Amino acid sequence: MPLTFAVRGTPSLPLYLIAPEDLDATLAHLSPSQAGWVRAQGFKAAAGAVCLLPGADGIAGALAGLGTPQDRARQRFILGAVRTKLPKGTYHLETDLAGDALEEQLLGWLLSGYVFDIYAKKSAPEADLVAPEGLNAAGLEAIALGEALTRDLINTPANDMGPAELEFAARGLAEEHGAEIAVTTGGALLDRNFPMIHAVGRASPRAPRLIDMRWGASGPKLTLVGKGVCFDTGGLNLKPGSSMGLMKKDMGGAATVLGLAKMIMALELPLQLRVLIPAVENAVDGSAFRPQDILTSRKGLTVEINNTDAEGRLVLADALALADETPSDLLISMATLTGAARVALGPDVPPFFATDAQDATRLTNASVRVADPLWQLPYWEPYETMIEPGIADLDNAPSGGMAGAITAALFLRRFVTETPRYMHFDIYGWCPAPLPARPKGGVGQGARAILAALPELLDL
């Protein structure tokens, strides 16, 4: 999978990445015959457009369009679209872009090399690029490889990606980077007081488990918690077929925190990392947990089950309670949690919640810098009563259908009482239609923004 740059010093052809207003100046630097060729082709530097330059022995280079500022606001990773249109060869970039704008395009180039070809042969782009001088090429490659891990995990169907396989992926990542890992499985979850993880996963023949990975011996402490529901039937509140079709992606939170962990460890950030993943399959048999059951969580809070399809917050709650017993400097949870978040913001923009206003500002600024969009929603205190059913401490599925993303976030926050700085992300984890550098399928959301914000968030 071509997710790296070509070796510096490799002979290469120029690739001019230009906006429409720079076209005339670029043509002035070409030979008259090449400039005439470009004009004859009607090339206007539209976003993602490509015009090959003729040379004495074939192709002498290429022009690629950045489009207008409005085009760039509407479409990320334009250079990723360019790569798929270029013939085989090695290129070097000629552009006025710099800083974050340049890195966005170069990451798009790398990510356009991603293909999921485990089950069917697919071709990857054959064009290579020499990284510009002064660029932290290894850093961008680490980000691309972390994103590729997230995509692979989400894209793998549930028959090949159950709790055991998710554990196997985490163990492989731990071995790659010298991390420690411990896993609590099956009945041991009850022995070690993870009752809600066990309750959600017990109906499946694939044993539920809690994965606990640690890396780093010094520095600030960061804990990542990812929802690992490897398939969600909805339980006894069975989903209709139209809603069940994408449920292999319901472990997208786990996939995203593992991808982020891979980035952090590959970049050797000076921090102490902990990753917690409750991995289950929400299945149906005679032992499945039921509507109106009341579960007692690790935290001691009781939860009335008013919908077995609101299971993600249950498994996350036990994992968050464990994380909260050893408070970290920053605690983050990521989950494909609510349809309400998609109704509010669509598939592209995940909402996040933060207990610290300064953390939220830093994260929002970082998300803009690295083109990884996020939008803050509030922990709206007046809605707390919506998650209090009266018969138990908490309701896992408040009636009424309003503010579903917020009430889910408020539910999770009840399990974080000792860690002052907590952020929760309600991601989608799926690209519903192909876009530059993002084929249809699993996709990471929020990880790059978090990574970019970590130096400020943790004073690294």
Automatic annotation (TrEMBL):
- Please cite one Gene Ontology biological process associated with this protein: proteolysis
Keyword annotations for this protein, in alphabetical order, are: Aminopeptidase, Hydrolase, Manganese, Protease
Ranges in coiled-coil conformation: none
Entry's family note? Belongs to the peptidase M17 family.
Q: What SUPFAM superfamilies would the database entry show?
A: Zn-dependent exopeptidases
Q: Which residues cross the membrane?
A: none
Cytosol aminopeptidase domain residues are 307-314
UniProt xrefs under Pfam families: Peptidase_M17 (PF00883), Peptidase_M17_N_1 (PF21337)
GO CC entries = cytoplasm
Q: Say yes or no: keyword Membrane present.
A: no
Native species: Celeribacter persicus
Query: What is the name attached to this protein's record?
Result: Leucyl aminopeptidase
Mind listing the GO molecular function terms for this protein?
manganese ion binding; metalloaminopeptidase activity
Q: Which PROSITE patterns match?
A: CYTOSOL_AP
